[in-house]
Fold:
Amino acid sequence: MRVVSLLSASRRKPAIRILGSALLLILLAIVLPRHKLADALRSMSPLTLITALPIFLAIQFLSCLKWHLIVNLADAQLPLLQSVRCYFGGLFSNLLFPGIIGGDVVTVTLAASRTAKKESIVSGTVASRILDLAALLLLTCLAIFVFPHRVDAGGERLIELVLGVFLGAGVLAVVAAILLRRRIPGKVAAYWQAFVAGFQRPVVTLLVFGISVISQAGLVMLMQWVGSQCGLVLPLRAWLFAWPLAKLSAFVPITLAGIGTREFVLAALLIPFGAEPASAAAAGLAWSAVFVIGSLASGAISKSVSLLVPPSEPCPT
Structure:
């Protein structure tokens, strides 16, 4: 009950999430050798952040296109420019609201103000997030089964644990979907119908999933490059395994935009692949800087589009 109360309070009070990030970062500095952490951060040139920012935004534009396609598959009839406004507004809001889900809520709210088909927006956003999770799962499975790399015994046990968690979550998701389909009453059924509609054109759905895989893989490779600038040179398999799982830690609404939790999870997952913990944490901090700057830029993009095409006027497709 105490944990539930803390999570609920963190959703309501941004100061709690800021405090959570600050405490985890302080703990990180206490646990890890500070001189190694500082050396790893100093080894990264400011040019790295400047270069990573446009790449990050380009990948987010691709993710925005994916979201635009899937919500319109659900018959949202949302113009592309408004999709850009809503998606990047939600990305900016990740800095203000708990975890990734908070940004999704803002995206849905902005989009719902432009169309009467709220069920399509909500269901399409859920479908988009499910495709993202499936893409992350695919990348993790590629890391485990396709790309060969030797890990220690602890790493093998960690991989087995992750596979067990994924399998259990998958079974629960299937069972929940079957039960919900049979029991959904009244108005909620419209959301289910809109959700199903997003998957009724297999070719387009496959295209959307392909975009999601490319976007997530692009983020992994960008993270690998940022990590190499901090002296963390690891094979792609290590990043394909560790980064999606570290990214999922941002769903836990106890820190600001996942800052703090992501660094701890990333360091823990990369150690079995031979990573120096301080370098792994420094790479996570560097990524947090890219994410924060990118989110601020996303807010500027969303505001610019809203000025270009006011919500009260129709916008071109």
Q: What stands out?
A: Residues 94 and 103 are 5 Å apart (CA to CA). DSSP finds 13 helices and no strands in the chain. The mean pLDDT is 75.
